């Protein structure tokens, strides 16, 4: 199986590569459109800030390549958010593959921002979550979120429910870090590789 | 609901884990990679590695060690010690660290926090604050706790969060290694003053100390070293204790 990890100078790429390695899968870190098109699976990790990530995608032309991909695609953290239409983070237009607008959490005494740490998943749907239950926890680090909608395949709450995972066709996204979520995260990543 | 985190801390010197009392009198506590793997297995929510000799000897943290840890670890980890440039942070993140912890460099030049947050995102920038109680005031210390800064701890924590720190690692040097409990008043004051998560550190001895720091102290996470390294309190036992006491933890 050929696994491609999108290289756009924007993510915690090494952790994702190590997680794939622990699953016995070898991945290619690439920004080359042909390599991405030929891969069986594409992972799109992301961390940092939305506007500079989009700028980096535009500079390499990946903003036009990624939406045309047809194989199973997994956006992680910021990589999930970038699949939406727009982010409040520096008023940034996104890739527009899913119909959500990314918003900022508002902190209160009991709910710090960033939403950082282990939270349980709710309302799990679809093959990515095979073998998981609402007792499973995954690791989140983010200050912005996608609201719940028809595209939501898992939820978490901080304090209101938000999209922990999304899907539209071959495009999947998870707000949490599968690669840093212990056994639960490893199972989700393995489920993605088995799609 | 977000859970309270338990974070074993591995102070690393010359490739070994060490632990002292109030930052002195170091004892050997084992191979950091083996310890990291054991803690992840036992349910640690995150790990912190501090290269404790780095600041005073101006040596860069060992990116090779970071890479070996990242290869085996499936939970997040933070690396700190002697980080003073954007290049230092980039090297650690590229090696597989999830977050970096900065301390003396931020005190020397607070704008460094903003530069790192803009470049890498607040989510991976932890500002570590070492505080010592002197005549009733919590004073911020620098250079591995050896020099006073003249800054008051709560004010500095607020400034660090305003500048873009995504999290604060708050250590009471007056409690570190004493196993007499966390600095509850300091932790509560900082937690109330900033919108970002606070990791309380220094003084963990008994399971009840953790209940206290999460409830009375308002901490989002608690960090400890000795009680885990020397098998005084096993992580699974501690987590079950906290769960039974009504503290939200990941079992």
TrEMBL record, chain A:
One of the entry's Gene Ontology molecular-function terms is: imidazoleglycerol-phosphate synthase activity
Q: Which GO terms describe its cellular component?
A: cytoplasm
Q: What is its EC number?
A: 4.3.2.10, 3.5.1.2
Signal peptide: which range, if any? none
> Where does this one sit in the cell?
Cytoplasm
Q: Give the chief site where it resides.
A: cytoplasm
Q: Give a Pfam family name.
A: GATase
Q: Which domain of life is it from?
A: Bacteria
Report if keyword Magnesium is assigned: no
What does the record give as the reaction this protein catalyses?
Answer: L-glutamine + H2O = L-glutamate + NH4(+); 5-[(5-phospho-1-deoxy-D-ribulos-1-ylimino)methylamino]-1-(5-phospho-beta-D-ribosyl)imidazole-4-carboxamide + L-glutamine = D-erythro-1-(imidazol-4-yl)glycerol 3-phosphate + 5-amino-1-(5-phospho-beta-D-ribosyl)imidazole-4-carboxamide + L-glutamate + H(+)
Q: Which pathway does the record list?
A: Amino-acid biosynthesis; L-histidine biosynthesis; L-histidine from 5-phospho-alpha-D-ribose 1-diphosphate: step 5/9
Matching InterPro entries: Class_I_gatase-like, GATASE, Imidazole-glycPsynth_HisH
Q: PANTHER family recorded for this chain?
A: IMIDAZOLE GLYCEROL PHOSPHATE SYNTHASE SUBUNIT HISH
Q: What is the annotated role of this protein in its UniProt record?
A: IGPS catalyzes the conversion of PRFAR and glutamine to IGP, AICAR and glutamate. The HisH subunit catalyzes the hydrolysis of glutamine to glutamate and ammonia as part of the synthesis of IGP and AICAR. The resulting ammonia molecule is channeled to the active site of HisF.
Q: How does it assemble?
A: Heterodimer of HisH and HisF.
Can you name this protein? Imidazole glycerol phosphate synthase subunit HisH
Q: Which organism is it from?
A: Hymenobacter properus
The gene that this protein is the product of is: hisH
TrEMBL record, chain B:
CDD domains cross-referenced by the UniProt entry: HisF
Q: Recall the taxonomic lineage recorded for the source organism.
A: Bacteria, Pseudomonadati, Bacteroidota, Cytophagia, Cytophagales
Q: What is this protein called?
A: Imidazole glycerol phosphate synthase subunit HisF
Q: Which reaction does it catalyse?
A: 5-[(5-phospho-1-deoxy-D-ribulos-1-ylimino)methylamino]-1-(5-phospho-beta-D-ribosyl)imidazole-4-carboxamide + L-glutamine = D-erythro-1-(imidazol-4-yl)glycerol 3-phosphate + 5-amino-1-(5-phospho-beta-D-ribosyl)imidazole-4-carboxamide + L-glutamate + H(+)
GO terms (BP aspect)? L-histidine biosynthetic process
Q: Which family does it belong to?
A: Belongs to the HisA/HisF family.
Ordered alphabetically, the record's keywords are: Amino-acid biosynthesis, Cytoplasm, Histidine biosynthesis, Lyase
Query: Has keyword Coiled coil?
Result: no
What is the protein's quaternary organization?
Heterodimer of HisH and HisF.
Where is this protein found?
Cytoplasm
| Species of provenance | Hymenobacter properus
One GO MF term: lyase activity
The pathway noted for it is: Amino-acid biosynthesis; L-histidine biosynthesis; L-histidine from 5-phospho-alpha-D-ribose 1-diphosphate: step 5/9
Instruction: Enumerate the active-site residues.
Output: 11, 130
| Cellular component aspect of the GO annotation | cytoplasm
The superkingdom listed in its UniProt entry is: Bacteria
What is the stated purpose of this protein?
Answer: IGPS catalyzes the conversion of PRFAR and glutamine to IGP, AICAR and glutamate. The HisF subunit catalyzes the cyclization activity that produces IGP and AICAR from PRFAR using the ammonia provided by the HisH subunit.
The EC code for this enzyme is: 4.3.2.10
Classification via InterPro entries: Aldolase_TIM, His_biosynth, HisF, IGPS_HisA/HisF, RibuloseP-bd_barrel
